[in-house]
Amino acid sequence: MKAPNPNFTSIDPAALRDFIQAAFVSQGFAQDDARTIATLMAEADLQGSDGHGVIRLPQYMKRIRAGGINKHPDIRVVHERAAMAVVDGDNGMGHLVVSRAVDLAIEKARQCGVAWVSTRYSNHAGPASLYARKPLQHDMLGLYFAVGNANHLPPWGGTDMLLSTNPIAAGIPAGSEPPVVLDMATTVAAYGKVKAKAKRGEMMPEGWMIDRQGKPLTDPNRASEGFLLPIGDYKGYGLALVVGLLAGTLGGAAMGKEVIDFNADHVSVTNTGQAILVIDLSAFGEVSHFKGAVDTLVKDIRNSDRLPGVDRIWLPGEQSHERRQAYQAAGIPIANSLIKELEALAGDLGITPLLQGAAA
Q1: How many Å apart are CA 228 and CA 157, to the nearest integer?
Q2: Which of 118, 155, 270, 271 lies in disulfide reach of 260, CB 3.0 to 4.6 Å?
Q3: What is the mean pLDDT of the chain?
Q4: Domain residues of the chain, as ranges?
């Protein structure tokens, strides 16, 4: 079934998940691990985070086949106290490593009220919000931090790219309202959005990137000639630095010059770092009171006075929530150019093509 835009095709979420799972199984991953990765990647596309979903599959496969990913990692705790831990991912897929870290943080927060778990020797794990959202199922609040998998940001006023997009995410439970879910890079746009623009043959808006002369860079195919801009000018630079120190340096993961550009290097161990902070709402009082207060604030913000021409005031996570519902019913719109690439990949891997699997 075609999406309204003729340049996209709607794919059933389950079919997309099964296709991704088959790709990882074809490379020797255990079925359970492949299922975990595929579920998270399909969830990224389902919520509209298309720069971190199936678009990444060809790159993942290239890195796996080059030996840059450990297909059977020994993911283990290397430092631990009651309310914290450091998880060594043994160079496994980031989706597996971070999932283990979040589960451990939830378990510890249930005992201590709050818990921080860092990862090291992890890899790219998809959109930050996937992991900030997970504690919501347990009436817990999640805060997530990560070091990006390539440096695209120089220090404010410089040209040496020593920092990455270093994202932050927060998942905050509500009652009758959708949860408040913030997922943002510390740059104006995440690099995954640049890659998605290139894949679709679209130009970037001014303000995302500049070249090394400080001039606007709008062609995503020339992204290597410039760098991303931080949010809020020097404030975004400072935020990217602090997030990197928390998510990378604190847990013994790569930061600064140590960060490997996994877009160009498919073999070297990236030693990617992430961190999850989980807070058990019940440690602070009655959970229903907190959720009710969030509902009230959400409604106050949504119903507040608007500027001329503004149809609606959105809360963080509302648009992703609506996309998830719409795509679950009508299918996930995937760019035809990407589907063509995935069909070729399926032939290379010896698995059922995406469109054939979706039709079945």
Answers
A1: 13
A2: 270
A3: 95
A4: 1-65+328-360, 69-187+230-303
